[in-house]
Amino acid sequence: MMISAVPARAVLEEACAQAGFDPAGAEPVRIAENEIWRLPGEVIVRIARAGQWKAAVREVLVARWLAGHEVPAVRALPVDQPVEAAGRPVTFWAELPPHEVGTVMDVVTLLKQLHPLPVPDLPLDRLDPFVRVADRIEAATWLPEDDRRWLRERHDELRERWEQRPDGLPECVVHGDAWVGNVVRTPDGPVLLDFERASVGPPEWDLVSTAVKMTTTGAVTQTEYAEFCAAYGTDVTQWAGYGLLAGARELRMTTYAAQHAATRPEWEAEAQYRVDCLRGRTEPRPWHWKGIT
Fold it and tell me: pTM score > 0.85 for this model?
């Protein structure tokens, strides 16, 4: 979602002054909920939402931890960061070389490097699969109240089940949002991005993102998913807790669409379709949900 870059430039200039960068020649890459700018000299500036200081700190710490373990991931620049500008946390990153969107196999390749690492002494929260879901439901004011009430009840049900989830693989550091949109392929191989949701929890959560692309949305073929499972060494759809985690992921995907449809009416039809799917008003899975950009 592109908007005017003018309001953010003052924030960019203030942040650059604090961190010792020259904002002259800065170009907006993506101005949306989070704002991405490129500076001359292969520097990327990420301006996060107000109130996201803790997440910005975590992103930098996790990136540096991964660098220490030689996991291919976007690199935080060696400056004192985040900095705060106009109440917004700002971070600075090394620009990636030319790249393309990652693949399902790129995702599993990186998870195989991340999950075995020992849990570090960093301020990582416990995994919460439902972060911001309640806020998203309340923000979806355009939805019929009956649908919003159902989403709230579904949210409550899944949260209760999460507290009683079955045992699975040993807990570890999880990416939190491990899908092809957070992986890119460079000439040197795949690179992991976006550590906003990094936390400690069941690795199954990172595996579910790909699994639901097969079982729920049909974006991943059975062949691709079989290769994913063979590479990782387990099939999360066979775990007793799969329905719970898949339900949580489906709810996140639905409420994300519903929230943003409140300000982008062109997304209303897709968001309503996702609600209808969850409520059993449509055809059975896979539902072939459209991507929202």
Answer: yes
